[in-house]
Amino acid sequence: MKALVVIPALNEALHIEKVIATIRASTDVDIWVVDGGSSDGTQAIVERLKSNDTALDILDNPNKIQACAVNLAAQTARDKGYEALVRLDAHAHYPDHFVEDVLSALDPEQGLVSVVVPLNTIGGNAFQNASRDTFNSFLGNGGSDHRGAAATKQVDHGHHAAFWLQAFDEIGGYDPTFKANEDAEFDVRLRAAGYRILLLGTTPVDYVPRATAKSLWGQYTRNGLYRARNLRKHNTAPKLRQLIPAIIVVALLGSLVLAPILPIALIIPGLYVGALVAAALWVRRKSGIRHLGLMVWVAAIAHIGFGTGLIKGYILRA
Fold first, then answer.
1. Which of 123, 191, 224, 226 meets the CB 3.0–4.6 Å disulfide criterion with 181?
2. Mapped to the 3 state alphabet, what secondary structure does 143-161 carry?
């Protein structure tokens, strides 16, 4: 099987060399970095590595977003005779032999043309440590199949790892208008075409979360917005774990509007914060209360951000 590793990148100077080195340590597969116009030296790092690695290359992605980066690489790869594509994120940490493991799980003859993997959030600064504890628990992931520990099984969606290129092209690749949630939208069309998706639970990926509250808010409002676009595009209803953040936003806004004439309405924000504190205490029950306040802050940003984006996506049709 002739396979290609693709790494979409935009200002990933802090991570790009490590992820390339990790993959190169266990495989000699071709690697393409598809850069969206980095201004932090990412391109220079790749060019330096490329001078000693003939199987490494860098492509320009003028459209900047990840969906376009992968589509560009997939089209070029098909023209060059590649059969499979492995998608990596620059700001993630991959286990040894990751590429071989996900490629070996593909079985196009049986319709298994996409392999996805679990995501395990790791720490860094204090905010990222709180994010790790939050997103590796029900408080932050809502029980999603591909977050944290996971069994190997067929799923509807997961963190994208490997594709059979013929199937990727057949359904049109990623929707290039999606700046987020392009993977979930792709999976809807893939399953509708009769193909299968395997969650490879034995090959988790360590994900580096956003380092600041502002960047986390931007990520989750964008995720909510494009989840709404995905649901509207395919005329499907949100799952309960996706709907709950929107309900929280409506309840909080409603309580603030009613508070001047009905002060008891302020009990709603109090109950929400109390629920977050209780949930964070439960998550940290075996390891103490360190980062507890930040966990509550991270969870609130994720819930309210996603809910705001989801509502905006439906009301404004954004």
1. 226
2. CCCCECCCCCEECCCCEEE
Which token pair is 91?
């700001």
Average pLDDT over every residue of 48-59: 94
Contact 6, 88 (CB under 8 A): yes
| CA–CA separation, 94 and 3 (whole Å) | 17
Q: Which amino acid is at 211?
A: A
Assigned token pair, 65: 């977003």
The residue assigned the tokens 């996706």 is 242
At 232, which helix (H) or strand (E)?
helix 213-233
Q: Is 294 helix (H, G, I), strand (E, B) or coil?
A: helix
Sign of CA dihedral 124, 127, 129, 132: negative
Residue 307 makes CB contacts below 8 A (sequence gap 6+) with: 224, 244, 245, 246, 247, 248, 249, 250
| Helix-then-strand count for the chain, H and E | 12, 11
Closest of 165, 181, 193, 157 to residue 233, by C-alpha:
181
Helix (H, G, I), strand (E, B) or coil at 164: strand
pTM of the model: 0.91
Give φ, ψ of 160 to 5 degrees: -65, 135
Q: What is the pLDDT of residues 143-179, one digit of tens each?
A: 776 676 678 999 999 999 999 999 999 999 999 999 9
Do residues 219 and 308 touch, judged by C-beta distance below 8 A?
A: no
Q: What tokens were used for 207?
A: 């994900």
In angstroms, what CA-CA distances link 246 with 95, 141, 242, 286, 317? 36, 15, 8, 31, 15
Among the residue ranges 51-60, 134-143, 168-177, the one predicted with the least confidence is: 134-143
Measure the CA–CA gap between 222 and 5, rounded to whole angstroms.
Answer: 26
